[in-house]
Amino acid sequence: MLPYAFVISFVVILFAAILGNKTAITGGSGKVVDSGPNDHIFIYNSDHAGPGVLGMPTSPYIYANRLIEVLKKKHAAGTYESLVFYLEACESGSIFEGLLPEGLNIFATTASNAEGSS
C-alpha cells in the first residue's frame, strides 16, 4: 500500500501510481510505478468486491471498466514488458472476465470467478 494522505480518493491515487503520474498525487511519499519498457510489474490487491466493482478503504470504488482503461493506457505508454495482476476478492473474476483485451501482455489471476466467493 502506498502511503498517501486522504486528500484525494484512493482510486485516483492507485490509478496515478500505476500510470507513474507523480503530478496527479499530492502528499504521501510520491512513490509511483516508474517503469520502463523492459520492466516486469506485479500488482496485488486484496479487498471486498462485487460484480464489476472492487472495494477501496473509502469510496469511490474501482469499477472494472475504469481499471481496464488504466491498464490499456499503461500498455500504450510502453512502460512495461509484462504485468501480473493478482486480485483476491469475492466475485473478482468479474473485473477481468471478458473485459481484459488480449495483446496487452497482462496476466491476471483472481481468487474467484465472476460469481463466486473467495
TrEMBL record:
Return the EC number. Answer: 3.4.22.34
The source's domain of life comes to Eukaryota
Signal sequence span is 1-20
Keyword list (alphabetical) reads:
Hydrolase, Signal
Stated family: Belongs to the peptidase C13 family.
Q: What is the lineage of its organism?
A: Eukaryota, Viridiplantae, Streptophyta, Embryophyta, Tracheophyta
State the protein's name.
Putative legumain protein
Its Gene Ontology cellular component terms are:
vacuole
Q: Which PANTHER family would you find in this protein's record?
A: HEMOGLOBINASE FAMILY MEMBER, VACUOLAR-PROCESSING ENZYME GAMMA-ISOZYME
Q: Which GO terms describe its biological process?
A: proteolysis involved in protein catabolic process; vacuolar protein processing
What Pfam family does this protein match (any one)? Answer: Peptidase_C13
Under the heading InterPro entries, the entry gives: Peptidase_C13 (IPR001096)
Q: Name one GO molecular function term.
A: cysteine-type endopeptidase activity
